[in-house]
Amino acid sequence: MTPAIVLHTEGLTKHYGSVVGLESLNLDVHQGEVLGYLGPNGAGKTTTIRTILGLIRPTAGSAEIFGINTQTDTVESHKRVAYVPGEATFWPSLTGMETLHLLGRVHGSVDVAFRDELIKRFDFDPSRKVRTYSKGNRQKINLIAALATRADFLVMDEPTSGLDPIMEQAFRHSIVEAKGRGQTVFLSSHILEELEALCDRIGILRAGKLVELGTLTEMRHLSALTVEATFGEPPPALEHVAGVSNLHVEGGHVTFNVRGAVDPVLRVVADHHPITFLSRQPSLEELFLSLYGASDGVPADSPQ
Amino acid sequence: MTTIAAVRPSGSALTPFRSPGTVIGRLVFRRTWRSAAIWAVIFGGYTVAKALGIVDIYPNAAALHTAAVQLASDPGLNTLVGAPRYLDSLAGMLQWNIASIMVTLGAIWALLTSTKHLRGEEDAGRWEILLTGQTTARGAAVNVLAGLFASTLLLFAIDGVFFVATGSVKTVHIDPGPAVLLALDVALGCGMFAAIGALMSQLLPSRGRAAGLTAGVLGVSFALRSMGDITSASWLLNVTPLGWLEQFSPLTHTSSFWILPPLALILACGSLSVFLAGRRDLGSGVITVSDSSRPHTRLLNSPLAAAVRLTRTSTVVWLAAFTVVGGLYASFTNAAVSSLAGSASAQQIFQHLVHTSTAVFAGAYLGLAFFILLTLICVYAANAVGAIRDEEASGRVDNFLVQPVSRLRWLAGRGALVVLVIVVSGLLGAIGSWVGLGSQGNGISFTTLLQAGVNATPPALFIFAVGIFALGFWPRRTIIAAYAVLGWSFLVVMLSSGISIPTWIQDTSLLHHIVFAPAAPPDWGANAVIIGIAVVLCAAGAVRFNRRDLQGE
To answer: What ipTM was predicted for this assembly?
Structure first.
């Protein structure tokens, strides 16, 4: 049985004058999955999230959360959503606990015991005034407030911004826990390691367009293997072998990428008796960099 | 100890900029010169209008002398603009009319600007970026003060030109020297409160507190100056900054000695603020306040309740101010009536300003008092709509709007709160006036005062509505729009009290359409039209706000 669709966008588009913020986004996020949303600065990640949540209005297209249109019925669509923005802005005169209380009351429901557990987990002191918190501590308020709602759909925009590595681990633990409870997570980030560890599927955004969407395994199939080999004799001429690219030769050591069938490469390499042979699938970072070549970035002025 | 020479990476091509140590000062000047120039022009225009108006109303020395005798015993006016010294000359009359008002407004501008750049920038987190450049905390503080000094100098220069030009008008005839000293008087007022604001910015850990305490110093200074002017305790003028400037008396009988205390205060507060800037940690103040407390969750159950809680201190201060203003002016009613009754000149002023004769002098005087109250309520309304915009600009409203809270509900809640405060302000002003009138037995009933209080609220509702309209369509211009309408309306009314202005220009002033009750019965029809337009503006702004993108700073 196909899991229910939590988020559905159709042709979702946002233009800022002549600048494209988001172009024709068609995306489904299924119940219980963690969807990673990846892209460099200005690619349109935050624009996507703010459009989905109804904070900005789409130029075209629509978004639905649990089948409810987020533009025409914004309030209803928010009832099962919790949001963690990348930058936390609160009222400086309130304490952390007062802020958590206010956000919980406005949301409508909070698991108080779990909130207290999260306060311990994130090593957060809620008695201090917000104005005294560091960026990381203010971000903890966002995370605790969102997770404590036990909302069915968690929308997170670079949620670990400002957190130290220990707190990042606590965050990952919380996401795994949320997924285990059947919550759905839309996780926008440019921390590739985080996405690689947490996400069922990953969407890659480029200049406002979704250019890749799938599991990491599916993406790796679309990309090249990285091969390293060492020979006791001069290495074979590999540049003309089908599928080989990015060939680097240094003495008897070669590195290259192989796209498609590996048989031709293996035959050539085997004929030259390699001392070592190592092939590995590309990391998310390599996939990401292969999509964004050094000279193939996004418009620097694209608003998020 | 080994010294490690700086190594420049090969191939780097650094562009050296001139005077990196003065960048902050230039930045502050760049961000403040416009407002300084605008205020200077307003002061200049006001002075021109007042000078020509006085020439028109008091055409000769005899008229001035008669007015001087009558005005000298009016405690209400003395409270507002200072003791009426040397009114038997045009220069003295002009000085009495304008100097105190300009100094007070200039001081408000200066304290807000000073605390914004010395503490507000730090609160916003921008200060630390600047401090990692080629400067120190003290160097940066010196820079800010230098930038503020440059803007104040600009204000002085523009006003100097205006005042000298006004003095050169044949019928006015004030020498350039005193005219320049009048500009210096205004600039010193700005300088003192910029310096006090700078000091408070070092002492206290937030801009709101620094600005609030500096405003408190200004308020106390104003009160001491008023008491010195209307009671026998004239020595009070020697201990208050506004008293020093009053005694400086730039246009006539100038006492140059009184330049020294303001200069000393500026130097002392400026130096102390620079010293303290290097003694405290970034983000803190010299005076520490508790940064933690037990949670108090009362009024934190909804966006509206939270708005009540987060604005309650400033709201209470505003409401108290409206009550006190109403009571203070009303308490001097009979004294004002006895001093002004029978004066043709005074009758002419009231005819221009509150559109009534002095036949019902107590009412006319209170009409003027309620006009001041009305203007203050309008300032509150402009500030309140600015605060609503600030919630959006800072991103704090996102915390609510990503929850099951609609934009219209949030805006309606905030708006209803402001409207409630505006209405209560009018009522409290009326109650304060009633208490102030006490048993003076001048035949003005509580109902009449209540009507006057209610009559004072439509302009503020209109100013608020203009702000909401701008919030919907041009959010980054919200507070500018509200203050522009208020400033223009106030300027036109003040100018029209002194010089002849075409009717169509007067019609563009919101305040021109308000009857200054209880000088005359309120024009409920005009008020209904104003409120009707305000409702339409609010509705249009709210609908647009609901449909547009949220916008940051």
So the answer is: 0.82
